[in-house]
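Pipeline run #58 for the internal structure catalog. This entry was flagged by the ingest filter as a single-chain record with no existing model, so it goes straight to prediction. Upstream metadata was stripped on purpose; only the residue string is passed forward. Reviewer on rotation: M.T. Logging verbosity set to normal.
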Amino acid sequence: MGFDFDEVIERRGSWSMRWERDPPEVIPLWVADTDFRAPPAVLAAMSRRLAHGILGYSVPPAPLRDALIERMQRLYGWRVEPDWVVFVPGVVPGLHLAARHLTRPGEHLLLPRPVYHHLKRAPEGAGREFTEVPLTLADGRWVWDEDALAGAARPRSRLLMLCNPQNPGGTIFRRDELERLAAFAAKHDLLICSDEIHADLLLDVGKPHVPIASVSREASRRTVTLLSPNKAFGIPGAGCAFAVIEDADLRRAFSTDHHATVHDASVLAYEAALAAYRECEPWLQAQLAYLRANRDLVEREIAATPGLAMAHVEATFLAWIDASGLDVADPYRHFLEHGVALSPGRQFGSPRFVRLNFGTRRELLAQALTRIRSASR
């Protein structure tokens, strides 16, 4: 079955966060959702539920838990027990729950920079101290500066925040890199909260995703892994995610105020997630092939544009573009004035960068890249 990722779908007027913010003449390539219609099997599952006609309170469905467990075993050889799975409405709430409930006032967190901004907002919102550890560009990949990480640990350090695959840098961390991070966490008695929402969006063939909790039993016992089909299957507005937590005490702490501040996922979200995991692998592979070609187009165009540079994107549909070679004070504002809305690098801790979402139809992406090249002359 073919899937049309070049289909023109009008998103203005649909309450789209990305498409409603800027004037119609601006091409919005910022917030990380795609412009692709959700998989047919997902839409069919949601339609069947709507036809049933009752949208009452729902319990997390056992078949969805089973589908997640089967997926972890099949893709990663990672054996997850049913009681390790905690349902949450999204990865972002999971990040905030981890910062609030797995650390105490006065304790300290470690997180990378640049990184998706909610990994920083979580300790800020919890009133916890934290240190941002710089990632470094090594052999074309954004990786942890392990010397800086070692120097950032404190006696009161309690939680290490990880984003793998890395947003915004696009790195798939290798097993040996994750083993060293896990050993560092064990040495300093740190818990790990790992945002792995982009685990299904692997663009480089032969570079597998490795959940950090899967590298050893010790790593598993001290890790909260946050997973979701939302990004890979184009359903972030539905909202369903999972925290995989082996340690029972961590699970209890993480779930302290469930229903007090965090609601359950909706019945439509459960239907969408289950259909995505059970029925949508061909759609996912077709999307990855399309995104891979989009990634290649972005990399060629940025390499040919004076003043701009970017590392190779191994995973995600996000390009982390270094605009420090341009003689402009604010790259985000500069490109916006030329008709392209990107994510400002300051949001991720690097104001001389911008992040471009290439999860859109290729014709529109090419138009945006033409505007970016023109703005860089």
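catalog note: The mean pLDDT is 97.
catalog note: The chain has 13 helices and 14 strands.
status: ready for reviewer M.T.
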